[in-house]
Amino acid sequence: MQVHGENVLYANLKNQGLTMITGCGHGGVLNLLDYARRTFAGGEHIHAIYGGLHLSPLEDWDKQRDDIVKALGGYGIAKIGCNHCTGRTAVEKMLASGLPVQRGTARNGSQTDSFLGNGDVLELGDEVTAKL
């Protein structure tokens, strides 16, 4: 995809499963989740994903993006903590489809409480948190 230097972190949380953390998911959220399934022991159970999912950073939308949101429902993810380049449109579609998007507080300059923003915390379980 001609994107270089982008990092994705996969962590195995005790008694929870894998968590995927990405900055800006240029690689494609489904590609990154499938990579975890193929590569890591326990990859078939993704507990949480966090980061920019790069679904509609410019708020554009089409059937392919609808298909991505629908496919996310098949991964059994317990918590989705998305921000910045995920896009408001994508978050609205994810919430409408019943995906477990963690809401934010809309404080510290964040524009919406639909998703995590500045100063919000994603609680992952067993005393593990990701502070923004």
Question: What would you say this structure looks like, in words?
Answer:
- It is a single chain.
- This protein is an alpha/beta fold and 132 residues long.
- 23% of the residues lie in helices and 27% in strands.
- The chain has helices spanning 29-39, 63-72, 88-96; strands at residues 8-13, 17-24, 46-52, 79-83, 121-125, 128-131.
- A four-stranded mixed sheet has the order 1-2-3-4.
- The protein is globular, with a radius of gyration of 14 Å.
- It starts with 7 loop residues before the first strand and ends with a strand.
Please specify the SSE layout and strand pairing.
Blueprint: E1 8-13, E2 17-24, H1 29-39, E3 46-52, H2 63-72, E4 79-83, H3 88-96, E5 121-125, E6 128-131
What is the gist of this entry?
The chain is of the alpha/beta class and 132 residues long.
What is the number of strand segments? 6
Q: What is the gyration radius calculated from CA atoms?
A: 14 Å
> Low-confidence runs (pLDDT<50, min 5 residues)?
none
**Spatial shape:** globular
Helix content: 10-25%
Strand order of the largest sheet: 1-2-3-4
**Terminal-residue CA separation:** 27 Å
The share of residues in extended strands comes to: 25-35%
Global mean pLDDT:
89
Q: How does the major sheet shape up?
A: 4 strands, mixed
Order of helices and strands: EEHEHEHEE
